[in-house]
Amino acid sequence: MQPERADRDRARANGVVLLPYDEEWPSRYAQVEREILAACGIVVAGMEHVGSTAIPGIQAKPYLDIMPGLRSPADAAVLVPLMQSLGYEYKGEYGITGRHYFSKWVDDDEHIWKHNVHTYEVGHPEWIRHLVFRDALRADPNLRDEYQALKVILAMRHANDVEAYAEAKSEFVERVITMAGGPARPPQG
Q1: CATH code of the domain containing 91
Q2: Which one has a higher pLDDT value, 28 or 12?
């Protein structure tokens, strides 16, 4: 089995695979943004590229984290079938109150393996938290490097458990968001 195929299979089996920053990630995001806005623009007020693929220079799982912003919470009822028509699997709130989460594996792209779509109403505390974290790491090379080092260590420690990997990063994420003046995570119900 080819190394990339083995890595993709491990990622699909809940493993953690980090790749060096890929200059193609922003253009891949722009392409997906156009597709989602063309299909869902009637309810989407704007979109943001978040997550590690949105931070130049940092290693990341080759997954696009896409954040469409809804005009109102009621727009989710319209959004869900539109996103499903694009091949996205709807997973509900997926552990975060107020989120509508979708995912789709990508098989025919060597640069991006998965799309994670985190949809909130524009201005929702989680919408703001994603932007605050992304922007803090984009603006501060020391924070970015600290996060990079942490991710590499945690990817080795939790190589076969993406949930444990994500949980292990949460203290750093919370510290950065707090330091940058972002809102606290809303209580989860």
Answers
A1: 3.30.460.10
A2: 28
Domain count, the chain: 1
29-54 pLDDT per residue, tens: 999 999 999 999 999 999 999 999 99
State how far the Cα of 85 lies from the Cα of 104, in Å rounded to an integer: 12
The domain containing residue 103 runs over which residues? Answer: 3-179
Residue 188 has pLDDT above 80, yes or no: no
Q: Which two tokens stand for residue 125?
A: 């505390």
Strand order in the sheet with 114-121: 44-50, 63-70, 114-121, 100-105, 89-90
- Determine contact, residues 149/134, Cβ cutoff 8 Å: no
Q: Hey, which residues does 120 pair with through a beta bridge? A: 69
For residue 184, tell me if it sits in a domain: no
pLDDT average, residue stretch 93-114: 94
**Is 115 in a helix, a strand, or coil?**
strand
Measured between alpha carbons, how far is 42 from 91 in angstroms, rounded to an integer? 21
Single pTM value for the model: 0.93
Residue 59 is assigned to a structural domain of this protein: yes
Report residue 11's pLDDT band, with 50, 70 and 90 as the boundaries.
Answer: confident
Q: Is the dihedral of CA 12, 112, 56, 7 positive or negative?
A: positive
End-to-end Cα separation, the chain, in angstroms = 43
